[in-house]
């Protein structure tokens, strides 16, 4: 739905996982001041014709048979002002946390990927330099577990973490029209890491207490020496 305000450029993502027919419609708000606009549909920079039109809406119908037909489709309305709306046809994107996964040595790391539509297959990879190495739980059952929570949710567990497990991991969802990937960064910290601030504070307290104690011993000795000198003067 296009309001018709000058400079408006609407964006909408459309997930397409398998071959299908798609209908895209731009509809001008009935309260818009933009009257009888000239309408152009484009795929990227290529102009295409719309297949149906009513008084305030313009539609194109697409048959998506392979991933070469994915991409951006825009309707451009020109009148007193120019407004547009763009549909981004893409394979379903993978949902996942953007923040690094932070855990400690000996613990368990969990990574979960979810898509809007069920993919044909899920794959997991770890990064080794510039290469992606496929994770195969059956070859290392003591290190990795993959659990399919549902058709569109997959879960990787990394067991008995060590510092060497730190790095970048990927999950991949394979659809008939293409693949989607999601990046995870894993940071494995030493079990001593959370104790370091506490140890630093304790060390500072120990230094402070030791300094005070030494100062008191020094002051006491100086006082005793002063008293002995005073006694000797009295005797003289």
Short description:
With 236 residues, the chain is α+β, with helices and mostly antiparallel strands. It has 1 helix and 17 strands. Helix content is 17%, strand content 47%.
What does it look like?
Pfam families: I-set, V-set_CD47. The chain is an alpha+beta fold. It has two domains: 2-90, Immunoglobulin-like (Sandwich), CATH 2.60.40.10; 94-189, Immunoglobulin-like (Sandwich). Helix content is 17%, strand content 47%. It has one helix and 17 strands. The chain has one helix at 196-235, and strands at residues 9-15, 20-27, 38-43, 46-48, 52-53, 57-64, 71-78, 82-90, 94-95, 101-104, 109-115, 121-128, 131-134, 144-150, 153-158, 167-175, 178-189. The strands form four sheets. It has a five-stranded mixed beta sheet with strand order 1-8-7-3-4, with no helix packed on it. Strands 10-17-16-12-13 form a five-stranded mixed beta sheet, with no helix packed on it. Strands 9-11-15-14 form a four-stranded antiparallel beta sheet, with no helix packed on it. The longest helix has 40 residues, at 196-235. It is elongated, with a radius of gyration of 34 Å. The mean pLDDT is 84.
């Amino acid at each position: 739905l296009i309001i018709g305000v000058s400079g408006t450029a609407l964006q909408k993502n459309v997930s397409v996982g398998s071959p299908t027919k798609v209908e895209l419609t731009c509809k001008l708000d009935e309260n818009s001041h933009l009257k009888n606009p000239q309408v152009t549909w484009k795929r990227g920079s290529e102009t295409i014709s719309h297949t149906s039109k009513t008084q305030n809406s313009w539609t194109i119908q697409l048959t998506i048979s392979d991933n070469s037909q994915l991409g951006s489709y825009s309707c451009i309305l020109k009148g007193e002002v120019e407004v547009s709306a763009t549909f981004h046809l893409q394979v379903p994107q993978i949902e996942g946390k953007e923040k690094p996964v932070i855990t400690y040595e000996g613990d368990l790391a969990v990574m979960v990927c979810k898509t809007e539509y069920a993919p044909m297959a899920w794959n997991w990879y770890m990064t080794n330099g510039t290469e992606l190495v496929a994770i195969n739980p059956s070859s290392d059952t003591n290190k990795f577990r993959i659990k399919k929570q549902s058709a569109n949710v997959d879960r990787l567990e990394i067991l008995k973490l060590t510092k060497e497990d730190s790095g970048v991991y990927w999950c991949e969802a394979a659809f008939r029209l293409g693949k989607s990937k999601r990046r995870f960064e894993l940071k494995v910290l030493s079990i001593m890491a959370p104790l370091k601030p506490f140890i630093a504070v304790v060390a500072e307290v120990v230094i402070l207490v030791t300094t005070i104690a030494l100062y008191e011993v020094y002051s006491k000795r100086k006082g005793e020496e002063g008293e002995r000198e005073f006694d000797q003067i009295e005797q003289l």
